[in-house]
Amino acid sequence: MAQTYVKICGLRTSEAVAAAVDAGADAIGFVFAPGGPRTVTAAAARTLGEAVPAEVETVGVFRNQPIAEVIETARAAAVSTVQLHGDEPLSDLRLLEDAGFRTLRAFSAEAYSSLPDDEKVDWETGRILLDAVEPGAGVTFDPTAIQAQPPRGHWLLAGGLTPANVGMLIAALRPHGVDVSSGVESSRGVKDIGLIRDFVHAAKMR
Q1: What share of the chain is helix, strand, coil (3-state, %, to 5)?
Q2: What band does 140 get if pLDDT is binned at 50, 70 and 90?
Q3: Between 113 and 49, whose confidence is greater?
Q4: Which residues are registered as beta bridge partners of 105?
Q5: Which DSSP string corresponds to 126-145?
Q6: Sorting pLDDT into bands at 50, 70 and 90, what band is 133?
Q7: Taken in order 70, 49, 178, 32, is the CA torsion positive or negative?
Q8: Domains in the chain, CATH or no CATH each
Q9: pLDDT > 80? residue 1
Q10: Residue 164 gets which letter from DSSP?
Q11: Are 144 and 119 spatial neighbours (Cβ–Cβ below 8 Å)?
Q12: Per-residue b or e along 77-94, where b marks 16 or more CB atoms closer than 10 Å to that residue's CB
């Protein structure tokens, strides 16, 4: 069985980026959605990304921003992937793909479960991420609905994950990957190097 794909999100310092890469993370995320404690500029993300090996995916995270702005910022930051974490339509992902980016579309687990089946099929042709209602808050969600009908395509689990619970949740839900931000922080927006290492190790051991 392939090892779980691990994304460490909300990185802002070279130390945190190095810790994620050294621990074996498959992707690192930079937040460009405004107003949060993890938001970085495109210039800062580009500088941080220069130290990331080519095999590690660099992801820019946006939320309900104009698609032209998203593409401009992602290009300036030199990220390989764009994650949309709001109410963006499928057509925005197609525009990003046409612009040369890999894509990831995030949903709250509740919103995803309530989608009609035909809409789920459309989204599941790409990669999706299932999160809690308030992303980045460290809040878990009831996994019952996901256990009953997990996504059929490539999907990541997020929302309240920590080094202590990630192995159990991977075993229960069997996502292709996991995404963490607050679960590896000593305080909101401040990454803890030890927790990053512990999280990647716990996820990869499954």
Answers
A1: 40, 20, 40
A2: low
A3: 49
A4: 84, 128
A5: S-EEEE-SSTTS-----THH
A6: very low
A7: negative
A8: 5-204 (3.20.20.70)
A9: no
A10: T
A11: no
A12: bebbbbbbbeebeeebbe
Confirm if 177 and 166 have CB atoms less than 8 A apart: no
Q: In 3D, which of 13, 106, 23 has the Cα closest to residue 63? A: 106
Pure H helices in 26-116: 42-49, 67-77, 90-98, 109-113
Give me the active site residues, please. Answer: 9, 131
The contacts of residue 118 (CB under 8 Å, 6+ apart) are none
Dig out the tokens for 127 from the structure.
């990669």
Task: Please give the Cα distance from 11 to 58 (Å, whole number).
Answer: 11
Find where tokens 């992707």 sit. 27
Closest CA to 33 of 44, 43, 42: 42
Whole-number Å distance between alpha carbons of 23 and 180: 14
C-alpha distance from residue 159 to each of 119, 180, 201 (Å):
23, 7, 18
Q: Are 6 and 178 in contact (CB under 8 A)?
A: yes
Q: What's residue 150's pLDDT?
A: 75
Handedness of CA 180, 201, 44, 70 (dihedral sign): negative
The tokens of 169 are what?
């949740």
Average pLDDT over residues 60-72: 98
Q: Rg (Cα) of the chain, in Å, rounded?
A: 16
104 SS3 class: strand
**Furthest-apart CA pair in the chain: how many Å?**
43
| DSSP-based three-state secondary structure for 204 | helix
